[in-house]
Amino acid sequence: MLVSFENVTFAYTDVPILTDVSFSLHEKERVGLIGGNGEGKTTLIRLILGELAPDRGNIFLKNGIRIGYLAQSGGLETQATVWEAMQEVFAQDRELIAQLRETELKMQNADEETMRALSSRYESLNRRIAARDSYHCDVRVRTVLNGMGFADVYDQVVSTMSGGEKTRLKLCRLLLEEPELLILDEPTNHLDVKTLFWLEDYLASYKGSVFAVSHDRYFLDRLTSRTLELERGTVRSFKGNYSKYKILKEELFALQEKEYEKQQEEIAKLQDYVDRNLVRATTAKSAQSRVKQLDKMTLLEKPVPPPPPPRFSFTYRDRPYERVIDAPDFSLAVDGKTLIGQGSFTLMRGKKCALTGDNGTGKSTLLRFLMSKDPRVRAGKFVKFAYYDQENADLDPAERVLDCFWGRHSLLTQTQARNLLAQSGLQAEDMDKTVAQLSGGERAKLELALLQAAHGNVLVLDEPTNHLDLPARESLESALRAFDGTVLFVSHDRYFIGAVADCVALIEDGSLTFFDGTYDEFLEAQRKKQDRPPLPPPAPAAEKSATEKERGGYRSKEERAREARAKQRTKQIETRLEELEARESELNAEMAEYAADYAKMQEIWKELEALHAESDALYAEYETLI
Q: What are the φ and ψ backbone dihedral angles of 398, each rounded to 5 degrees?
């Protein structure tokens, strides 16, 4: 057991946050923590870290436990380069290898007596290096940096990077440090889809335990095997990932409701008997027995349903022509950087298109371009755009919430305005707050209320799920699925994309390509393109379009051949490295056996030197292939 909470209660200035909370985290577990905005998830983490102390109850941690924590906005701060910052994790490994090399040099000119002592030290260092896997440190650093999107910035100084990049680097460092308990607070916020898949694959084989707070249902489904729900100050544990939790949660509520109703019926029946028979001499004794039954009964509390999620509904007045957006030939650049070299974009009425691509490829820029008055873009007749801006740049921080909404939709009565804001998840007390006083989730709900009131027939959404809790995301999905207009959106929430999109546009390597099909089908096609195994559970293979067939399934013959050669060479190197490691173990054993044989020790030393030289060369080549 790594962490145990026993009846923990905590409050901020008499406002209860946690009440009699009990749960445990065990070794090699993958646990997800979910709960609405403001429920106290970050508070619970701070209690684990010891930054807060409980008002009542006990928190037990394993002796000497190493905990790594990634906060939502907790980036890496250092004046070192990216490579240097990651190498700091392995300072002890470099020192061990340096001591080994120093010992090797001393052994070349040692006399027999000194050789015995040096051999013993050499063997001890080798065992420690092998146990720590020190020779693979550079490979591990490159694997993590490349997987997290830092392949081309090894020499960049960390302090010059953006906040999102610093947060990703902090995660890189935590992955390399390998703490026993890795606590991740919204780790997917700053990751693009490709990096998300890499991170999930990496964490699947992580040696320690992972405790993740996340609104990314896809991430939770792929990673976790147990779900903790924080609701109304209490924590309840469910076996399984997020999708399993949803089923179990509904079943539990239905069972509790049934048991409560059954007990209420029994109480009513007993009480009725008592009321009718207590005053009768012939039945008073049996009535008294019923009274005792009632007194001994442990009353069940009426189960409280989950808080109602916000309700969204999108409507429009005018139906546009069939071709709502047509940009047949364009290029796109920002500040001299080409985002799309030569592209075309057509969106038909009623389609729901997800725009995907790595961070920095220009997705938000393309959205704004397609809504602009640029002559290269033709909007269909009667098209009315309604835009959701992830930066909330259209909101005045100093304006009152009700004034912000009502000022743009003054034809609504104040009651109608308040009702729409309330349906979108804003409380009565939020109406008089300034926009600056709202949380990220509350600002998102204000934006969605404005979006609904705009009555656009083409919704253009830039990261609409950012800051929304899970019930709000699911409510938005339902509303967009029910909307019979057109939707063009950018999102890193793969679950959201899968629930809404019926086609996908991908920006990659400066080009814009389309996939007409579901997101699961798109992912399966992408994984086939990269010769990667399918995602669990396997999705149905997508039917190739004529354009894809002409391209040979996304890759040229030369590309496939080059990848095949790289894979074959990688396997050869791995096999040879295993052979060299086995031989090194044999030589280390021989050194202990022949410690008194000076001539034999010189032979062993020469072979070891050649072995290390070959290993170093193979590792250098291996790093270029992974």
A: -85, -10
